Amino acid sequence: MEIVILDDPGAIARLAADTIAALLHEKPAAVLGLATGSSPLSLYDEVAARCARGELSLAEARGFTLDEYVGLGAEHPERYRNVIDREFTSRVDIARDAVHGPDGLAEDVPAACAAYEEAMAEAGGVDLQILGIGTDGHIGFNEPGSSLASRTRIKTLTRQTRLDNARFFGGDLDAVPTHCLTQGLGTIMAARHIVLIATGEEKARAVHELAEGAVSASWPATVLQHHPHVSVLLDDGAASHLRMAGYYRETYAAKPGWQGL
């Protein structure tokens, strides 16, 4: 696990975008894992700006979203497929039909989840998965207690996650769905490179557990300690509980010829 502490979200976005650019230079048809929530928004802004300037192209790339609410109507603005379209797909040159997500309106949920796993496998797997992290340590919607080997499935959202997400629903907790479809922890771990972005002091406890705690289903993100290539990009607030923050800073500063992650 590679911990990088940077001064501000803009620097985080630039480094993450550099990493995506390097991947696409080497593999134009790369498969990206796309997260929603507030954590990746600055990254999506940076990638969109580079596309607008002609510095980056996603024309051959494909994408798979991390999760989806169950039961939100197809036109609901907070349906994650619509969020990805609004915040990312519509702003870059990736083909809209090259981005796929779990079907939160499926009548046969287990079959829809199995089909999603199969589609990712047929695409060759995810080359780079973008992640955020919840205040309780969830990644995707894998809440505390999730199996560390889980695959795409339906999950019940905890009250804390629904409280955290109520801001996207006008502060109305009752408007936040109670269930979701999410890539499992085992699914996420199959990605070849994972870039996790966390900013703000409210994420500091979860980041500490992620990087320095024991691997435990109580903090689902800790499973990433077993991944061979995870890059964790933090600002000072998110890094504020790390006992080894000084070491992480020195390691990053001293790395020769640093080019991406």
TrEMBL record:
Q: A GO CC term?
A: cytoplasm
What does it catalyze? alpha-D-glucosamine 6-phosphate + H2O = beta-D-fructose 6-phosphate + NH4(+)
UniProt-listed Gene3D superfamilies: 3.40.50.1360
Q: Which Gene Ontology terms cover its molecular function?
A: glucosamine-6-phosphate deaminase activity; identical protein binding
The catalytic activity of this protein is classed by the Enzyme Commission as 3.5.99.6
Pathway the protein contributes to: Amino-sugar metabolism; N-acetylneuraminate degradation; D-fructose 6-phosphate from N-acetylneuraminate: step 5/5
How does its activity get regulated?
Allosterically activated by N-acetylglucosamine 6-phosphate (GlcNAc6P).
The annotated site for Part of the allosteric site falls at: S146, R153, K155, T156
Q: Which UniProt keywords apply?
A: Allosteric enzyme, Carbohydrate metabolism, Hydrolase
Q: Which GO biological process annotations does it have?
A: carbohydrate metabolic process; glucosamine catabolic process; N-acetylglucosamine catabolic process; N-acetylneuraminate catabolic process
The segment(s) forming the Glucosamine/galactosamine-6-phosphate isomerase domain are: 12-226
* Active site per database record: D67, D136, H138, E143
Give the family this protein belongs to, as stated in its UniProt record. Belongs to the glucosamine/galactosamine-6-phosphate isomerase family. NagB subfamily.
HAMAP family tied to this protein: GlcN6P_deamin
PANTHER family recorded: GLUCOSAMINE-6-PHOSPHATE ISOMERASE
Q: What does this protein do?
A: Catalyzes the reversible isomerization-deamination of glucosamine 6-phosphate (GlcN6P) to form fructose 6-phosphate (Fru6P) and ammonium ion.
> Would you tell me the protein name for this molecule?
Glucosamine-6-phosphate deaminase
**Organism source for this protein?**
Nocardioides marinisabuli
